[in-house]
Amino acid sequence: xxxxxxADRPRRIDRTLVRGVLVAAALLGFAGAGPALAxxxxxxxxxxxxxxxxxxxxxxxxxxxxxxxxTFQGCVTGNNDFKDADLQIYKDVFGPDKAYGHRTNHCDTxxxxxxxxxxxxxxxxxxxSGAKLWVDTxxxxx
Length: 142
Hints:
The structure is a single chain. The chain is mainly β. The protein has a single domain, classed as Jelly Rolls. It has one helix and eight strands, in the order αββββββββ. A hairpin with a 6-residue loop joins strand 4 and strand 5. The longest helix has 19 residues. The protein is globular.
């Protein structure tokens, strides 16, 4: 039996539309409810670095309170006896770049606290137990 007036017919709900609306609502909910995350990060590796080698530069806009950190995983030196690496963070400025403190990295995370806006990089100041350094994974957060 069909309804005589089309307006009296029950409406069919498009399941694809409903699914899309539910997925969009869930994604918006996750985006708005998550914890504050780092403004930025990058991952790379180190191969055959000696003292004075510099990382790539990154731009920190200082839109958060996240500490600038460098994490090393999988560290070796030329003689396979890695002990630690001395790192220094620098802010790229006109004239001599400004140093923000020396940290000793034992193939773990070194942190320099929340930095002001600017362009930064880290430098290998030295490595114990070998002249050259290799690191499988370098993750920089800012």
